[in-house]
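Researcher: I'd like a structural prediction for the single chain below. Treat it as a standalone chain; there are no partners to consider.
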Amino acid sequence: KNVVDDWARRFKIDGTPTIMDGIQNALENVAKSGTVYDLSGRQVKKNATLNDLKGLGRGIYILNGVKVMVK
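Model: Treating it as a single chain, here is the predicted structure.
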């Protein structure tokens, strides 16, 4: 399943994008692989995807400029 497509479907009314387009753009950025940083700016992992964050401890990380919370 494509996470970005799922979210995009939820935030369209009659096929017309709503004001929630910013969420879709953020999801598209985070869906790409990239370097993960913690909130102190330290590099945590390279070439990581959203699924790779599951292996990290609880906290807030930055992936492709988007803050992601790991519970």
